[in-house]
Amino acid sequence: MKVLVYGAGVLGSYLAHALVRGGNDVSVLARGKRYKQLKEDGIVIRHHFQRKNTVDAVNVIDQLQPQDHYDLIFVVMKYNQFPSVLPILAENISDNIVLVGNNADAASMQTFLNENSKVKKNMAFGFQLSGGMREDSGRIIAIHGRGQMVIGGLDGDIPFKSALEQTFKNAKYKLSFNENIDAWLKSHMVPIAAMNAIHYMNNFDFHKIAKDKNALMQMISVMDEGFMILEELGYRIDPAFQVKTVRNHRIFAYHGLKIFHKLPVTKLIEGSFSEINALFEKFDELKKAVNISTPNWDALKKQSTDKYRNEVIRDSR
Ligand SMILES: NC(=O)c1ccc[n+]([C@@H]2O[C@H](COP(=O)([O-])OP(=O)(O)OC[C@H]3O[C@@H](n4cnc5c(N)ncnc54)[C@H](OP(=O)(O)O)[C@@H]3O)[C@@H](O)[C@H]2O)c1
């Protein structure tokens, strides 16, 4: 299959690697420094758990032209970065698009493409279950078991499911089709926002957070309230164990989070507050539709977004 991975950061690079190894004709779209790194060195990955390095040569482009046709395009970037790419996808003739990453607003992105595209777009949304970070040299440190993506469409079955299955057939990578992908993505953003906001407030000092009972209990309360908002809006939390754990087994959740923050590997998972800031903003819109009290969610959102705003203002001076 002729595939484009649009966005060559931590997760996009790993996806491109898996697809190349699966026998596909893979191009990667990157910009600036990343474009140069990929052109010169290929996709360089340190697979942390597997204790091995891989280098894959791929076709690298820095622009998607309207007439460039791909059987599948995976857009792999942060939630706040998708909007700048949607008009470019709308102009392009390819029809099968998967947006991969945190997404609190899949429906509006689909509507935008439906209303603005020159050719009818078939869309799916995915989340890759891996993590990692990028070194200055461009090498990716990838944390993964077998590669895996949770994927689904907003309107039932994905029309290009067979193309997806064919693309991944020989890749060491599992697609987990999910009929409830919008709820899955919204459920996922709740723990991510709660944890990442506390990481950010503590300057990503995981060692300190692991010892701070108040911070860990605050994470749990914020998650519980985030899930309450989604439930009130009619979303089924997916997977359900997340809400059951933070609501009914708080001590278990506390010890789980404590262990998680102590693990050396946790430090290798990159976090960005620019994305969380945008997710909080979108979640505010959802929150307006329900009338429930969420003091922990509101306080953490305010503290972390105020800190972010001050830092962005300070850095722009
Ligand atoms: N990293 C993790 O550990 C991890 C774990 C689980 C989930 N996730 C989620 O997965 C998603 C992707 O994360 P990630 O870590 O792969 O992000 P990332 O490393 O920041 O990668 C995003 C890539 O997209 C590129 N990009 C953004 N806008 C672009 C544009 N307009 N044109 C061309 N390229 C553009 C960026 O370019 P530059 O190189 O110029 O920045 C970057 O290379 C996010 O939702 C994230 O939260 C990440």
Characteristic key phrases:
317 residues; alpha/beta; Rossmann fold; eight-stranded mixed sheet; 49% helix; globular; binds NADP nicotinamide-adenine-dinucleotide phosphate
Structure description:
The protein has 317 residues and is an alpha/beta fold. It has 2 domains: 2-179, Rossmann fold (3-Layer(aba) Sandwich), CATH 3.40.50; 182-316. 49% of the residues lie in helices and 19% in strands. It contains 12 helices and 12 strands. It has helices at residues 10-21, 32-41, 82-91, 106-116, 161-168, 181-201, 206-210, 213-232, 241-248, 250-262, 273-288, 295-316; strands at residues 2-6, 25-29, 43-47, 52-56, 59-61, 72-76, 96-100, 122-128, 131-134, 140-143, 147-152, 173-177. The strands form 2 sheets. An 8-stranded mixed beta sheet has the order 5-2-1-6-7-8-11-12, with helices on both faces. A 4-stranded mixed beta sheet has the order 4-3-10-9. Helix 8 (213-232) crosses helix 10. The mean pLDDT is 96.
Structure summarized in a few sentences:
It contains twelve helices and twelve strands.
- CATH architecture of the largest domain, by name, is 3-Layer(aba) Sandwich
Low-confidence stretches: none
Any idea how many domains? 2
What's the number of extended β-strand segments? Answer: 12
Strand fraction equals: 15-25%
What kind of oligomer do you see?
single chain
